[in-house]
Amino acid sequence: MKRLILSLCMIFTAQRTYAQTLEKMSWFNEPEKWEVKNNSLSMTVTPQSDYWRISHYGFTVDDAPFYYTTYGGEFEAKVKISGQYKARFDQMGLMLRTDKENYIKAGIEFVNGKYNLSTVVTHGTSDWSVITLDKTPSEVWIKAIRRLDAVEIFYSFDDKKYTMMRNAHLQDNTPVTVGLMAACPDGNGFTAVFEHFKVKHLPDQRRLKWLENNK
């Protein structure tokens, strides 16, 4: 009985800590309607909102919802996403950001009735890469691994097999905000749900090499 009580207490504490972590995150461009419940964030995405800088379209916008925490050093971030996409360019996923001119956003973007694995990398100006999906997944896992001066972006349909979709530069030794982003550039908003968001610390590779060489 004591073991059972102890196990239940440990499970409760872990769930409570996880939920508190999500609840203690911060908003940039907080949407009008959102909720954190059972380790997930749901939001009604702000209409006519996006992140983009200059290239191709000629405008700069920085006004979509972003729910974030701040990390230094190297880490792995992962989240399960599902959205009720409606309009062209409806999108959601992970974002890593050092400032308004330097960020990476990656996830699903809905374009012309198709689901696209989408990554936007911005350093002064934005670029956009897509992988169009033949099927319509009910949910997608997006994972970002920050190592040294680069971020590797992966996707999965089952949280088991991950495939790389982009490798991009991001300044190292600089604090980064990482979290959950959704945008609706061309529509009236949609419901976005983020589940099981987790950031895991990774030991600094340069430090590990130094320790290995200086035993």
TrEMBL record:
Q: What organism is recorded for this protein? A: Chryseobacterium kwangjuense
List the signal peptide residues. 1-19
User: Superkingdom of the source?
Assistant: Bacteria
Q: Which InterPro entries match?
A: ConA-like_dom_sf, DUF1349, UCP022704
Query: What's the name of the protein?
Result: Regulation of enolase 1
Q: What are the top taxonomic ranks of the organism?
A: Bacteria, Pseudomonadati, Bacteroidota, Flavobacteriia, Flavobacteriales
* Any one GO molecular-function label of the UniProt entry: hydrolase activity, hydrolyzing O-glycosyl compounds
Biological process according to GO:
carbohydrate metabolic process
Q: Where are the transmembrane segments?
A: none
Concerning Gene3D superfamilies, the annotation shows: 2.60.120.200
Keywords associated with the record: Signal
